[in-house]
Q: What sequence folds into this?
């Protein structure tokens, strides 16, 4: 006799021609969850998406969806400006858990509000850095954790887009290869004001950033984000993410299209297709959330607490660039960092 599998009721907030498609497609590979409801403010997006993915329940207001559907897990695919609002509503409605799209926050104010929420509410939240679970990168993370390249000495990571769009993915990649280590200092620089102009998505960040991050082990990581980052992808700038890890016995190098590991002079390498890896990574990301929902001790590696540490590093980069000094982490910056960056980089030109 086979044991019955508990199937969780899942939902998505914010659907259309965006990241929500990857969230839905991953359910082809998920056994313990079913996509039962979606919510969106644009009627045509809502109808088209629900029809394509055969989702039975559709709502214009996510609060109505919470109240009527009582979902176990909700994917939050919204602009960063409403992250906290959704978290509070989920807690009040008894939603079991959230998977929130990156970035977690944009400025010091929303970071502090979300941090305060996390301190006082038991809601289980993870951030959707699905790259962590892509099969090849996850394997390389495990091989580094197992000591195959020896003691890690430094990490070098980059992405083609700014800190709000892809930089948090890159910061998370650095942390994924340094499990259990905490950042203690950051020294950063930024440039370019185009990404600080107002847009519908509200993903405000300088066009480029570079930083050296020091961890409590003494290991340092170099981060590049934006136009000066090396190009390692294809099919769009969003695929130019990479991470290289150097140890006493060898190295690991991962991009969204290839991988390489060298140990004691022997090198293995290969290629992979980002779309194929990504859908499996998204499915494993979601399944890991189910594991945490079933066992409080099975903490999701992309939990809100870890994401807050990573975003505090982003704030540290901004403070370092504005004040031209190294910054100790965690930092507690003043409000309105984005406005200060606008003023510093372009005056009134991008208001």
A:
């Amino acid at each position: 006799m086979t044991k019955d599998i508990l199937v969780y009721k899942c939902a998505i907030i914010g659907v259309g021609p965006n990241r929500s498609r990857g969230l839905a497609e991953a359910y082809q590979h998920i056994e313990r969850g079913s996509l039962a409801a979606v919510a969106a403010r644009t009627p045509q997006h809502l109808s088209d998406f629900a029809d394509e993915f055969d989702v039975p329940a559709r709502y214009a207001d996510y609060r109505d969806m919470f109240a009527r559907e009582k979902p176990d897990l909700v994917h939050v695919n919204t602009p960063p400006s409403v992250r906290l609002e959704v978290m509070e509503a989920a807690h009040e409605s008894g939603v079991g858990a959230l998977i929130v799209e990156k970035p977690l926050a944009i400025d010091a104010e929303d970071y502090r509000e979300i941090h305060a929420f996390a301190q006082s509410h038991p809601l289980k939240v993870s951030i959707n850095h699905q790259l962590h679970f892509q099969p090849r990168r996850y394997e390389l993370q495990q091989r580094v954790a197992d000591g195959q390249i020896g003691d890690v000495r430094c990490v070098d990571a980059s992405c083609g887009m700014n800190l709000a769009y892809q930089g948090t993915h890159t910061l998370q990649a650095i942390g994924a290869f340094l499990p259990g280590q905490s950042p203690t200092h950051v020294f950063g620089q930024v440039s370019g004001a185009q990404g600080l102009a107002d847009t519908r998505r509200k993903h405000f960040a300088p066009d480029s950033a570079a930083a050296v991050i020091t961890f409590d082990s003494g290991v340092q990581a170099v981060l590049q984000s934006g136009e000066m980052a090396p190009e390692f992808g294809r099919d769009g700038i969003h695929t130019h993410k990479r991470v290289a890890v150097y140890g006493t016995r060898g190295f690991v190098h991962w991009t969204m299209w290839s991988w390489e590991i060298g140990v004691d002079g022997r090198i293995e390498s290969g290629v992979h297709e980002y779309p194929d890896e990504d859908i499996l990574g998204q499915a494993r990301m979601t399944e890991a959330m189910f594991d945490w929902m079933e066992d409080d001790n099975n903490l999701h590696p992309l939990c809100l607490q870890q994401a807050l540490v990573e975003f505090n590093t982003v704030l540290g980069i901004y403070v370092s660039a504005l004040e031209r000094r190294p910054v100790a982490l965690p930092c507690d910056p003043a409000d309105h960092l984005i406005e200060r960056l606008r003023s510093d980089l372009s005056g009134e030109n991008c208001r």
